[in-house]
Amino acid sequence: MFACARPRRRFWWYVGIACLLVRRGGGFAAVQRRGSRPSSARRAANVAITEEDFFLSILEQHRIAHSVVLKRDAKGRRGLYASELVTEGQSLAKVQLSHVLAADASGAVRSSVAGQTDAMWGLAGDLREPASEERQLQGETWDVRLSLALVEVSGSKLYGQSAGLSPFWDSYSLLLPSPGELTLPVVTPERLLREARHSRLASDAKLQRARLRALYPTLMVTEEQERRREEAFAQAFQGLMETAPPFPLSALEWAFSVIRSRAFQLDENLFGLPPGRSTPSTSSQDFRGLPDLPFRASAKRAPCAPSAVLDMANHSPEPNANFRLADDKSFVELYALRDIPAGEEATISYLTYVPDVPFSAAQPPSLSLRRMMAQYGFVLDRAEGRESLDLRDLIDDDGDDAADAAADVELPMEVVRPAALSVLSEENTRITNDGLADPDDAAGQMKLLEDLDCRLQAIISELTSAGKDSAGKPEDPTDERLRDEMRKKARKWLNAVRRLDAELTSEVPEDLETSPVAVQSAIRLCETSLKLGPNAEESATLLELRNLVDPRLVEMVRYRRKRSRLVETAKQLLEKLID
Known about the structure:
alpha+beta; four-stranded antiparallel beta sheet; 21 helices; 12 strands
């Protein structure tokens, strides 16, 4: 908990926050604060020290037990690697709960941070206290409150000056992503969001920024500043890193994106900051006054927190590690699910993971593609989980509510399953006949079929009632009356899919076109990742492309192409049902 109630007043800091704009690409506008000195972390960062050594120095200084190091792979992706053999069940890292920024679902921050500044006190009140019911209904959820706490303890990162609230976070915040590394839609320029060809993804991001601005206008860019930065970026952007124009973020935008992309649930009453399992959802009763936002947090469930060190663990479809909260809730532990030899990356699953069971057989419905992109800023290379298309939101039945309309056109599993098997069989024949896979490469052919199988599972989970067989005695699929009814329902689903297809294939105005070189390079990177898999080595040419193309453009293109594949699969399945 906070050690003190109200430190000395720093009105000048409040003014500094109000004016803060963060430069893209890792640099932050330094705000000189009277009475503050550069932190030891900043002084260390100014000395020639590698990222890996800096990470280790933090762990050792704060006595965090560990058998991991922080490294970057050939693609420049940062991750945790075992520094020695770690056997199944053994700990890779134990992070004291005092180093976890936590907040419960009411917005009450739980932390060992030594108080808060008067500026933040005047702005948000005592962060240890829950947000009022009125403020929660206005959108002040745990993620917003936790973002305020992160702004407080990230002085070294944001301003180059420490407020002295947390020596640990003074140092560790320097390792958190810089603005140019964040690919969440909420901090992505509208010009780039157009490359995703998804209007709702862009409108949700705009709503999120509007929510933050309505709650804390002095910590956000104004509407006029937002308009100007969008215009400046659109005019100068061509898709290449070396010519990328700045896109300044406010401190709250940065902190909110970090929290939302790295928060995870430790137990039913506590969440943490590594990118982990999906965060809690919210029913429509929780926020009757808010639109359906992608980052909705539950007002009726537990807290959330950033857990240092664990948040550096990357996702894998076959993770070798997981995290857990100690029984006495004194620390968070990253532990091995199997033996991990020295030098191997320690990975976790961001989706629901069932060990030793294929994804296509075991995975329950997970995040939709839109929610995955909105929360983490990327989608997975392969269809590892059931990442749906939000088709139910597109069903319109004579003006009825979308959810009710979707329920009215749900298809029974016993009708959909044979059609899905037929699609799989035809695809297998096509792969063989068209030479899409090496005839001698059984594993490659199997990967293509598994990817299609996962896409079919995702579509089926949307078309049917939670992917389950209909209750009671199955109806006879050869009955002509039933077939006519199924065709009518399938046509409604197909109309929804075609609307998505039309948006995905829409043309971008010439004056907003991205450099063809950049787009084609991004497409090549995405397609190669799909074929090789996330852990495969890339050629020198591809690595050069990865360093050339703006990562935000790559993620938007990846998102668009994955949605396109899902749309094509949905059309195949629905046309099969209609025929």
